[in-house]
Amino acid sequence: MQQNNNVTEFILLGLTQDPMRQKMVFIIFLIFYTGTVVWNLLIIVTLKFSRSLGSPMYFFLFYLSIADTCFSTSTAPRLIVDALSAKKVISYNECMTQVFAMHLFGSMEIFVLVLMAVDRYVAICKPLRYPTIMRPEVCFILMILAWIGSFIHSTTQNALVSKLPFCGPNLIDHYCCDLQPLLNLACMDTYVINLLLVSNSGAICSSGFLLLMISYMVILYSLRNHSEEGRKKALSTCTSHIIIVVLFFGPCIFIYTRPPTTFPMDKMVAVFYTIGTPFLNPLIYTLRNAEVKNAMRKLW
Predict the structure, then answer these.
(1) Residue 68, phi then psi, degrees to nearest 5
(2) Where are the domains of the chain?
(3) 30, 69 contact by CB (below 8 A)
(4) What is the CATH superfamily name and number for domain 2-299?
(5) Taking Cα atoms as reference points, which of 118, 105, 103 lies closest to residue 66?
(6) Contacts by 152-158 with C-beta closer than 8 Å and gap 24+?
(7) What is the mean pLDDT of each run of 10 residues along the chain (300 residues)?
């Protein structure tokens, strides 16, 4: 707890210490974050007010855009501001808040991606039962369960990290507060806590990835009975989804399913799932969709 700590603030070292590269980091990630927020807000407004986009798929896409926006906002603004700051200081309470927000919206994104894969599986493999299985009330209950699961996961993570004593030093070799960098600074044996954290975050990442891969393989296998045009369309969609899943879950599994050690590439790996994937999700899942683009034109 904070009252037992000598450390009341942390210093983030960021992605680089080179002044020229810091300016490049500022420009590049400002563009990425602005694009993420603008595209996702555009999608949120379109899905909210368009009457033609009322299917379960768009219901889940709506919450995916919310999760993407909030997940990126939990890390990107500080990275952008710190790129031009001489001293990258974050207070203890702000650090704990960032950890909570990252894991709340990160796990929410995982749950929504799984629900979207389930929706696609039912639509392609059980088309006649789709309206019965994916009823609006069922989708609503699934989304409530996803929020509850995300909150429990994030609260558990914070409860474990907040019990760590920090005696100094307070330098975090990262651009955000996260579990592994904080474990490295704790002045106690963190083996048991790391085991609990890995069993929590690692289990969610690994099981989510496994479920998604199984669902997409089943979908692709079931396409053998469809027409050639239908196979090409579904294959194009599933391929793009699988690419995003690998880009998101690959770094997550690398970071959260290993002993409490840090590697030089950790920061760049984290960029893929904290900033890169929220930027790509609107382009892959929504803006390639003709129905969404037509709805945007009508709405605006």
Answers:
(1) -60, -45
(2) 2-299
(3) no
(4) Rhodopsin 7-helix transmembrane proteins (1.20.1070.10)
(5) 105
(6) 153/103, 153/104, 153/107, 153/200, 153/201, 153/204, 154/100, 154/101, 154/103, 154/104, 154/107, 155/100, 156/200, 157/99, 157/100, 157/103, 157/197, 157/200, 157/201, 158/96, 158/99, 158/100, 158/103
(7) 67 87 93 94 88 85 93 94 87 93 94 90 86 92 95 92 84 88 85 84 88 86 74 72 84 82 80 90 78 80
Whose tokens are 């083996």? That residue is: 191
CA separation (Å) from 300 to 49, 57, 70, 195?
11, 22, 24, 50
For residue 292, what are its two tokens? 């969404």
CA atoms within 13 A on the CB side of 127: 6
Q: What pTM was estimated for this model as a whole?
A: 0.89
- Alpha carbon of 279 to those of 16, 49, 99, 115, 266: distances in Å? 22, 23, 20, 20, 20
Most distant CA atoms of the chain, gap in Å: 66
A 10 A CB-CB count for 127 gives: 9
